[in-house]
Amino acid sequence: MAIQSFSSGQTLTAAQMNSLQANDYNQTVSAKTTSYTLVAGDVGTHVEMTAATATTISIPAATFSAGDSLFISSQGAGAVTIQAASTAITVNGSSLSLAQYGGGTLRFQSASAATFFSGAGGTGFDVDYLIVAGGGAGGGRFQGGGGGAGGIICTVTATGGGGALPPAIKLEKSTNYAVVVGGGGAGSTNNGASGSSSSFLFTAVGGGGGGGTNNNQNGLVGGSGGGGNDASEGGSPTSVGGAGTLNQGFAGGNPSGSSNPAGAGGGAGEAGNTDGQGDGGDGIATTITGSSVSYGGGGGGGTRTSGSKAGGDGGGGASGTAPSGNGVAGSINTGGGGGGASGTTTQTGGNGGSGIVVLRYLTSAATITIGAGLTGSTATSGDFTVASITAGSGNVSWA
Q1: What domain count does the chain have?
Q2: Same domain for 142 and 85?
Q3: The dihedral sign for the CA sequence 39, 43, 45, 50
């Protein structure tokens, strides 16, 4: 049962006393069939995960107090990952993943720190991960905003996807873990479409589409935000770039008006327009594959007068070349944003680049199986095996 509350002067009944004694032996059980974020009322209870596919339990900050605790178990076949709901709280433990029939106690040291004492006893193996969502498409028709890069979550990188690095996670063998690789958004003569999210235990948000239609359309919110569309004949545009997602990417840029470039798409490493008006935000470089590769560049903003604007480092597409150029697509498997359309006639924004999921683990620790519905391959890098999953949705497992 949950912890009881009593008021001054209240008479304690026999039933209440029996309930309090039963608390340690017969906790209230709440079964969850999907991913779940803990609430204050879960203190003193047993949260039981029953899904056949992978789920998460997210732990929010400023919800629990020092000394609070609860029990978490996994009854379903899907792996359960214990994770912080935001960067405002830290969650530690020798293993933050539960296989079927695993369980453990979550105890809070403060409102911003908790430890999970897992019955798995740390028997799993460590996996580093790179999760890149699909990039947003550039905006179309005249000066389209650049598409925002797909959000990035990575444990092996120099700068982080817009914030601090998450830790590697400990996984269990003979357990299915769901993987989804997001596609890039489609370009058109209208607003650019946002990219699709990618996921592996955690979800990277698709990049925001660039503003289009020659009507001061805002860039869309995403992993990184899309750039704002410029006005038809110069002047003073009112559009703005879309916001990025905390710890995954940055905002799209605002247009400058007077026939200058539209706003550029945000990148995973910096905001759009950082390197110059209309230039896509740069992404991040990671060595998870064994060599330094950049991902998550924003798309360049369209221009009306002449030339084109560069996409951000990490697969961002350049804008179309004025006076009448379609935006360039973001590079595949980078999450790069598509470039905005340029010129004085109706043009098309570039497609966003598709995402990717990369998993790295010690070769001596396990062997991966990439399941049906996924396209991927493995390679070795020193003592590690690197699995790169480039398309689809399905499960991976290790033996």
Answers
A1: 2
A2: no
A3: positive
Portion of the chain with pLDDT greater than 90, in percent: 59
> Mean pLDDT, to the nearest integer, of 142-164?
79
> What is the SS3 string spanning 206-267?
CCCCCCCCCCCCCCCCCCCCCCCCCCCCCCCCCCCCCCCCCCCCCCCCCCCCCCCCCCCCCC
- Give the HSE-up count for residue 383: Cα atoms under 13 Å, Cβ half-sphere: 4
For residue 77, what are its two tokens?
A: 């076949």
Q: Please tell me what DSSP assigns to residue 124.
A: S
The residue from 95, 123, 151 where one domain ends is: 123
Which alpha helices (H) appear in the chain, and where do they start and end?
Answer: 14-22
Structural domain including 275 reads: 124-399
Give the closest residue to 278 by CA, choosing from 245, 324, 322: 322
- Looking at the structure, tell me whether residues 78 and 161 fall in a common domain: no
Q: How many CA atoms lie within 13 A of 143 on its CB side?
A: 34
Residues 211 and 237 both lie in one domain:
yes
Whether residues 136 and 189 share a domain: the answer is yes
Whether residue 5 is contained in a domain is answered as no
What are the tokens at 100?
């079927």
| Average pLDDT in the chain | 88
The sheet with strand 55-59 has its strands ordered as: 36-37, 55-59, 80-84, 97-98
Q: Is residue 383 part of a domain?
A: yes
Final residue of a domain: which of 123, 154, 189? Answer: 123
Structure tokens at 305: 């007068």
Specify the CATH number for the domain of residue 59: 2.60.120
241-264 per-position pLDDT tens digit: 999 998 899 999 998 876 678 999
In a domain? residue 384 = yes
Kindly state whether residues 141 and 107 are assigned to the same domain.
no
Residue 8 lies in a domain: no
CA distances from 48 to 51, 59, 72, 302 (A): 10, 15, 6, 52
Q: What is the pTM for the complete model shown?
A: 0.75
**Which of 94-98, 232-236, 278-282, 297-301 shows the lowest mean pLDDT across its residues?**
232-236
Separation CA 249–CA 243 (nearest Å)? 9
Q: What is the Cα–Cα distance from 36 to 48, expressed in whole angstroms?
A: 10
Q: How confident is the model at residue 304 (pLDDT cuts 50, 70, 90)?
A: confident
Type of residue found at 290: G
